[in-house]
Amino acid sequence: MPNTTHSTSHLAPAQRKAAPVPPVFIVNTVLRLRKFLLRAADAVVPSYMAVYDRFMGAAHTMLVHSAARLRIADLLVAGPLSGAEIAARTSSDADVMERTMLALVSIGVFRRLSDGRFANNGVSKGMITGATGGVRGFAEFFGHEPVMRAWARLPETLQDGKQAFKEVHGHLAWDWMAADPAVQAAFAEGMSSMTEVVAPAIAAAYPFDEVKTVCDVGGGVGIVLAAVLRKYPHLRGILFDSPSMLGEAKAYLEAAGIADRVDLVPGSFFDSVPRGADCYLIKTVLHNWEDQEVLQILRNCRAAMEPGQRLLVPDFLVVPEAFSTLVPFMDMAGLMIYSGRERSPEKLAGMFAQTGLKMGRMAPLPGVQAVFEAIAV
Ligand SMILES: C[S@@+](CC[C@H](N)C(=O)[O-])C[C@H]1O[C@@H](n2cnc3c(N)ncnc32)[C@H](O)[C@@H]1O
After folding, report:
1. If you measure from the C-alpha of residue 42 to the centroid of ligand 1, how many angstroms do you get, rounded to a whole number?
2. Is 287 a catalytic residue?
């Protein structure tokens, strides 16, 4: 991602409700079971039904986008509402709202009660504003028209391999976000809430008691750093990001109660990375860049490190046979919407080897992610 930032309405940690996340192996087992059951159902139902769901993906996207944009899940927190009541509260057409809600229920978003009113269910609760691990912001982001128009270019991108958003709009998605505060806020909201789910797992995945100072490279507002520093009171942190992102980070770190232990260092990881830490972290940054750029970022991280020190790389985990759409779709989003790609552990290990690092341990994280440990040689 270029030097743009995701300006945001980040909620401070104290304002978020903690949501329990089941252990990684349980989540992955359930996802594998779901995949098996779906394949079994596909083999039994008429093929038009099995294929229908897939070619109506645009309908899924726009249904969920509309619900997220109108914050319907927020409205239902106080209790069930009829389609007409939801329409009245969102200045929408009552007939269209009823039909839209029924379509959402058919894909498992919201629940229809026997009296015809609609209520939140487990899925729609993930679209309540500010829910930890919630994705209201991403649900809104991915249905914006410029994103949908970029997806429509896939047939051409299959031919020429070009990044779709840039070809369609003449600029990168990051530039579009930077110019539209509402879009940028939706993206930032999604990014923050996903990071809040894995941040405690990152803090637990590595023995940070062995180090004194952790530098989070492209660390955003400091969600991961806050989780790590709160777990390890002896630690200091360096938060390295663009100046505008660090402007937002101040309030977040203060609310997390660790601002006095964190040095904010503005800059670009394409120029250099701050020295002086004995452990480095770079979360979900590398997947936003193409290989040459990733090599440059890794070289700059390595230049800041002493031999034997660690660079921890929490990122998405590419496995040979995906058991959820999350990582393959994230990879396609890199091709079609932002830039970059998802990389297998083997590919990452090769890039570490080219930049003076070697692959160490790998610890699984919730949400088909893992912490890859790169050791400076
Ligand atoms: C996908 S976000 C990840 C944020 C955070 N690590 C997380 O996982 O929540 C990428 C981050 O990289 C930062 N960034 C983008 N370009 C940068 C650059 N050239 N130098 C430093 N940070 C940059 C962005 O501001 C943003 O905070």
Report:
1. 40
2. yes
Kindly give, in sequence order, each residue whose CB lies less than 8 Å from that of residue 224, ignoring residues fewer than 6 positions away.
Answer: 195, 198, 199, 202, 203, 216, 281, 283, 314
CATH number of the domain to which 86 belongs: 1.10.10.10
In a domain, 148, yes or no: no
Q: What is the mean pLDDT of the chain?
A: 91
CATH number at residue 292: 3.40.50.150
Atom 25, ligand 1: which residue's CA is nearest? 5
Best mutation site among 132, 135, 242 for ligand 1 pocket (most ligand atoms within 8 Å of CB): 242
* CA pair distance 354, 131, nearest whole angstrom: 40
Among 193, 223, 241, 338, the mutation site with the greatest number of ligand 1 atoms within 8 A of its Cβ is 241
Mean pLDDT of the 6-34 span: 66
Region 255-261 average pLDDT: 95
Q: Is the pLDDT of residue 309 over 70?
A: yes
